[in-house]
Amino acid sequence: MTANNLYLSNTSIKTFLTCKRKFKYKYIDRINPNKDITNKYLSFGNSIHLALADFNKLTIDKYRTLDNLHNLLRRNWIRDGYESREEEKTFGLWGLDMLTNYYNNPKDDGSKNYIIEDMIFNNEHDYIICGKLDKVYKNSDGKTEIIDYKTSKNISPIDDLQLPLYLMLANYKLGYYPEVVSLYYLPENKKISKEVDDSFIKESITKILDLCDAIFNENDFTPTPNAYCKSYCEHYDICDASKSEEALIVNALTDIKNINTKEVLF
Ligand code: SF4
Question: Over 70: is that where the pLDDT of 60 sits?
């Protein structure tokens, strides 16, 4: 692989960890059969993100009204992927409701914004580490905090991959590491935060860079087929391994070996 030709993000790294062959198809060979398929959840999430990004850029109080926040959603609304006008309207009303709850009780009030909706490309390594930061700001405790807005209903903690990536991207842009990283689940108006210290930052970033180096140096891109390939992988048609019964069984045996022995009954 040539230097500075490999883009590593939260999504692409997770793909590598799930199936190296899929990673190769998608991020090295750049085969993307589904690129024109639209998805209403993606459209909805992007619409909310764009509305909040615009709203976060308004600094004069008289413009920061609920009406304006609602209108920013209407202005940024992405219409792709909905099956009918009724369905689109249902999602639109849900979005307005979500933003109303946010506006009435925001969990990300602060004194200064440093980064708003910025796609960052860190090219200090053999590969490019990239990702979008929704918001980095000085919070009410005076700490620098990264916010990642979520529109999914399932609340889960910040994972070990996302967290150091956010920290690295923020550091690349600001020149220092933020002290707090938060996921802001808008449907519940709930924020999950993690404070980070120097030793955590050092350790987690070392781990992620080791993983990125391993991806950069990978040559085999062994496939890991499973019973769900046909339904969930857009590369199923071009992937021979997914049609090999033997490969499926060998992979299932590898999975069994990786299961924690405390989790199995016998
Ligand atoms: S079909 Fe299965 S094995 Fe093949 S690339 Fe996709 S996930 Fe991997």
Answer: yes
- For 137-180, write each residue's pLDDT tens digit: 999 999 999 999 999 989 988 888 999 999 999 999 999 999 99
Which atom of ligand 1 approaches the CA of 236 most closely?
1
pLDDT value at residue 247? 74
> Over 60: is that where the pLDDT of 1 sits?
no
Q: Is 247 in the pocket of ligand 1 (CB under 6 A)?
A: no
* Alpha carbon separation from 17 to 8, 11, 90, 176 (Å, rounded): 12, 10, 36, 29
CA–centroid distance, 135 to ligand 1, in Å, is 34
Neighbour tally for 222: CB within 10 Å: 14
**Closest protein CA for atom 5 of ligand 1:** 22
Task: Tell me yes or no: is domain 7-18+108-217 CATH 3.10.310.
Answer: yes
Of ligand 1's listed atoms, the one at least distance from the Cα of 18 is 7
Does ligand 1 come within 6 angstroms of the Cβ of 24?
no
Find the helix or strand (DSSP H, E) in which 167 lies.
helix 162-174
Mean pLDDT calculated for residue range 112-127: 96
Q: Where are the domains of the chain?
A: 7-18+108-217, 40-104, 229-259
